[in-house]
Amino acid sequence: MRTAGNLTIIAVAALASGALAADAPKATYGFGSTPTDAELARFFSPLPDGRGLPPGSGSVLEGKSVYQQQCAACHGENLQGGSGGDRLIGGRGSLVNDDPKKPPVKTIESYWPYATTLFDYVKRAMPLTAPDSLTNDQVYAVTAYILEQAKIVPEDAIMNAQTLAKVQMPNRDGFVPDRRPERFPAAAQAPHQSLAIAPAAK
Ligand code: HEC
Predict the structure, then answer these.
(1) pLDDT at 200
(2) Where residue 158 sits, what CATH number does that domain have?
(3) What pLDDT score does 91 carry?
(4) Relative to the CA of 107, which ligand 1 atom is closest?
């Protein structure tokens, strides 16, 4: 009895000081490597309200030149799709209609609810053959150009972390909220933390 009691006290003390966590051997799986600080610094994950967007900016005009050099070959001169790449603009209002002969045209303009997703997607995934090769300024610029061609922002728009987050996408309210109860913790202030999704409480 006495021993068990003492053990309990030691365990509680160790937990409180964090000693247990520090001393425990780290689980490894025999592959991958620990990311360096420089690698972690390049990680970003923008949220719809703009948190997590990196610094930088770009204009519609700059974006036009990025688009023509890096995107038009696949997405078409007029962003209407073509050799391999999706159509990027148009189709506004086509998603909901009662005519089976008129299929919905899903594009950034007609479908995407948040403009920040465009930055995120292009930065990570495009150009298809060289993802993550564009600078943040180039991605902001080509984002500005696509949004301008979609008639969502004016010709003189400059996109950066603040202005992009303020862009109201045409289909912003076209999604039905999920009424099921939220099982994840509310998004924390830091974008990195908000991605740490805890297991659902039993
Ligand atoms: C080599 C061809 C190619 C090039 C170059 C290219 N893309 Fe793409 N892009 C694609 C393909 C293929 C997809 C569809 C990928 C998928 O669904 O997984 C795509 C998808 C996209 C989408 C998502 C469209 C949607 O509605 O889902 C965006 C946005 C996009 N590209 C932007 C760009 C931008 C901006 C550039 C230039 C910086 C670019 N792409 C260059 C081939 C290309």
Answers:
(1) 55
(2) 1.10.760.10
(3) 94
(4) 26
